[in-house]
Specification:
35% of the residues lie in helices and 23% in strands. It is an alpha/beta fold. The protein is built from twelve helices and ten strands. It has a single domain, classed as P-loop containing nucleotide triphosphate hydrolases (Rossmann fold). It has a six-stranded mixed sheet with strand order 6-7-8-3-9-10, with helices on both faces. A four-stranded antiparallel sheet has the order 2-1-4-5, covered by helices on one side. Helix 5 runs parallel beside helix 7 and helix 7 packs parallel to helix 8. The longest helix has 17 residues.
Amino acid sequence: MPTSSDKPVAAGTPSAAAAAGSSAGPAAGPAAGSRERPPTALRLDDVAAGYGAAPIVSGVSISVGSGEVVSVIGPNGAGKSTLLKTVTGRLPVMTGTITFGDRVVTNMRGHTLARMGLGFVPQTRDVFETLTVAENLEMGGYLLGKAQLAARIDTVMATFPALADMQSRTASKLSGGERKMLAMARVLMLEPSVLVLDEPTSNLSPELSRSVLRDQVRRLADAGTAVLLVEQKAFEALGVSDWAYILVAGRVEIAGPADDILARPDIREVFLGRSSNADETPSNADEAAGG
């Protein structure tokens, strides 16, 4: 069920009309707000969360459908990390509700959510560095029986065939891209229906970043997994996403189809740090956006 923030909303600056999709913007027209989305796998309704008594994010409503990549982007300090900690049960919800499938899971702990099918790949400490690739996968399938474990490793290896030749390699000896591949493969051992990714391209080269997002993240969604992505490289994230939310100062300022948002010069300028007339490359604009 779509929430209020699943439709494009007006931004406060510099032009509410442009941000809302008026005739001045390239995303104008009914298509931006009427695009049909798949059944919802994860939904946040009017969620507030933070540290102590002060909320960092407030009134946040987002949803992720099965087979979708949904990106949350925005400047540094927007509350993206706080939002992910809340979604994955690492930070309590102050107000609002979180629904996983048809079940309200507000303030459930992370290990309970994992058993229900919520996978989480953190930005750092995403693999066991002293263990081999095979041992990392076995750790990811800790809830499985022996026969299930072997079968699941075969399935994950088919999804990430590059790992097949690295099974005896220690994770600390993997490249950045290989490590991120292993991190996702480890989480996929329990066949999550929703996968939450925190900055999966952090510290990766532009080429590896594109590979992770286009070849790995997009492929997982195309296979039916609902993917919630927080990503520093805003343009790359939008390029592989179906839907996107722009978080500013702890609130959703813009929501809509990712390609519509990517095409709008007002969004690029205000929220992603790029003027529509500026002669900048996407990577330079991403740096200006600051994650």
